[in-house]
Amino acid sequence: MDLALFERKSEFEWRIKPFGRMRVPGVIFASEALMRGMDAKVYEQVTNVAMLPGIVDASFAMPDAHWGYGFPIGGVAAFDADAGGVVSAGGVGFDISCGVRTLLTGLRIEDIDRVKMRLADALYHTIPAGMGSTGAIRLDAAEMDRMLRGGARWAVERGFGTEADLERIEEGGCMRGADPAQVSEQAKKRQRDEMGTLGSGNHYLEIQQVTDVYAPEIAAAFGVKAGDVVVSIHCGSRGLGHQIGTEFLKRMVIAAPGYGIALPDRELACAPITSPLGQDYLGAMRAAVNCALANRQILTHLTRQIFSQVLPQARLPLLYDVSHNTCKVEEHKVDGRTKKLHVHRKGATRAFGPGHPDLPRELKNAGQPVLIGGSMGTSSYILAGTEQGMQIAFGSACHGAGRAMSRHQALRNWNGSRVVDDLEGHGILIRSPSMRGVAEEAPGAYKDVSQVVDAADHAGLARKVARVKPLICIKG
Amino acid sequence: MDTARWEHFSHQADVGVRGLGATLEQAFEQAALALTAVITDPATVVHGEMIRLSCEAPDAELLLVDWLNLLIYEMATRNMLFSRFEVHLEDNRLSAQAWGEALETARHHPAVEVKGATYTELKVARQSDGGWLAQTVVDV
């Protein structure tokens, strides 16, 4: 990207002065190296978002920003309903509430070694992964609506987990304001066989080892130390979320001119927050958030069942569950006044700082755990939200590595079976129904997540707490 | 343009699907094949079973997105893959037949499921050679 387009405010903050129809500045948090490697489309998309009605403060991009659709992936923007602010189906995306949760195990690396192969096979046979895989749970119409209203709380009430899990999930595991009546029959039908499934693409379930601890006090509050074994699950709202995204994107594209909104890009399809369409979307989107939370909760339950058979001494409490593609109503300070804003995070993680009222008591001083996924061969990271992040980016941080090359290119560069063999040589067991899928997700097709995490840490968005590396990866 | 064909084009996180043909209908059919090719090699999909589909939209570009989203929906809910298409267009109304078979993981090795068709790089246009192009990015 051409750095001359930006005003460098600090080592890790790059600003775009408003021009043309931009209502606010654009701000990208990144190192100079990341900025140079970033796609020029990010600049265009950040400026486009800055043109939307009612946007507050700035159109932000996180250090892992890359070319998305409408919003950049890694885009954050907040809107004020009282100032004509909008909610954008494009700003949330198709995989509503796609996210990561991490479970502690109480196990050490030496506990895993002798059962690693058995654990990998048992997980692979139990966790439905890949296109066309189906879950064991079928919901009738009434139960589907209860799930869409209740989220992870619904799942816990049905025996998939414990009450203690809920306070370790954003929104206490249940997004308020969900309206199942706004979720189409098609979306519900698409979900019929998909409860408790992982999905495909970059979604995974990993057994990981903590290799480094950078902030011992916060790590202690998180219950994490070097040599520990943890489990991370990355997946989203499955077919239901995808269908809601699809349907509302179209409705908003068609309705936008009627609301007097000139879209700089059709993918930025949006409607005023206070409009009937805006409210319908919020009701449906929140239902999809609950679907994602319920889905990750069921997968957690399946994982615990496997561990109870293979490693019965393990207990798997939830460290935290974060969502990436959301629009949430949050209170933030703007020009010294507290305002309720609709914060869109597209491929970005909420990262609330210490003392935030939404954090559970045990995490109050440490800040919110921010879980950053890497590729299947490289590290993932655990970070913590900061007070500075609350002030500079509505309490938001990066979400992952981001692709360095297209799937097409990856397929030309790698062979799936060979990737699996190579990684096994490095002590990482991969289990996947599709070798083509493995080739497309080869570690080399992703950027180095360490650079992204370091930039988030240096920019003050979130603090680096620990690094984990994969031992077993179940890939959809 | 003498032969109808499809291709993929690069998008950093996702995949672009492009159909080319002598007619708009052919371009839509080829775009659908490009969609299948994101998931698996279309040559491995037996076109034994036929389903009928229809949709309409305010313009040809929105109609392309609708068409691809309809196929994504049918693939997800029927657990099928499709490898042959016949599209008829009239006043931004589409009716089509799609032939395919049930997804079989061991044979089709599906690389990835497609979540939805986006409006990114969306273009339906006549080419300088008189043929038609229909393309967009799909989210995987």
What does this structure look like?
The complex is a heterodimer of chains A (476) and B (140). Chain A has 476 residues and is α+β, with helices and mostly antiparallel strands. The two termini of chain A are 33 Å apart. Chain A has 17 helices and 19 strands. Chain A has 3 domains: 118 residues, no CATH class; 147 residues, no CATH class; 154 residues, no CATH class. In chain A, strands 7, 8, 9, 11, 15, 16, 18 and 19 form an 8-stranded mixed sheet that branches. Chain A has a 7-stranded mixed sheet with strand order 1-2-3-4-5-13-12, with helices on both faces. Chain A is 34% helix and 26% strand. In chain A, helix 6 crosses helix 12, helix 9 runs antiparallel to helix 11 and helix 11 runs antiparallel to helix 12. Chain B is of the alpha+beta class. Chain B has one domain: Archease domain (Archease, Possible Chaperone, Chain: A, domain 1, 3-Layer(bab) Sandwich). Chain B contains 3 helices and 8 strands; from the N terminus they run ββαβαββαβββ. In chain B, strand 4 and strand 5 form a beta hairpin. In chain B, helix 1 packs parallel to helix 2. The radius of gyration of chain B is 14 Å and the shape is globular. In chain B, 51% of the residues are buried. The model of chain B has no long low-confidence stretch (mean pLDDT 95). Chains A and B meet through strand 4, helix 9, helix 11, helix 14 and helix 16 of A and helix 2 and strand 6 of B.
The CATH topology of chain B turns out to be Archease, Possible Chaperone, Chain: A, domain 1
For the termini of chain B, the CA-CA separation is: 31 Å
Average pLDDT figure of chain B = 95
Point out poorly predicted stretches of chain A. none
- State the oligomer: heterodimer
Which CATH C-level class of chain B is it?
A: Alpha Beta
Element layout with pairings:
The complex is a heterodimer of chains A (476) and B (140).
Chain A: E1 7-10, E2 13-16, E3 26-29, H1 32-37, H2 40-49, E4 55-69, E5 71-79, E6 86-88, H3 89-92, E7 99-108, H4 109-113, H5 116-126, H6 141-150, H7 152-157, H8 163-166, H9 185-191, E8 204-213, H10 216-222, E9 228-235, H11 238-255, E10 270-272, H12 276-310, E11 318-323, E12 326-334, E13 337-346, E14 349-350, E15 369-372, E16 380-385, H13 387-393, E17 396-397, H14 407-413, H15 416-425, E18 429-431, H16 435-440, H17 449-459, E19 462-475
Helix pairs in contact in A: 5-12, 6-12, 9-11, 11-12
Chain B: E1 5-10, E2 15-21, H1 24-39, E3 49-56, H2 60-78, E4 80-90, E5 93-102, H3 105-108, E6 116-117, E7 123-126, E8 132-139
Antiparallel strand pairs in B: 1-2, 2-8, 3-5, 4-5, 6-8, 7-8
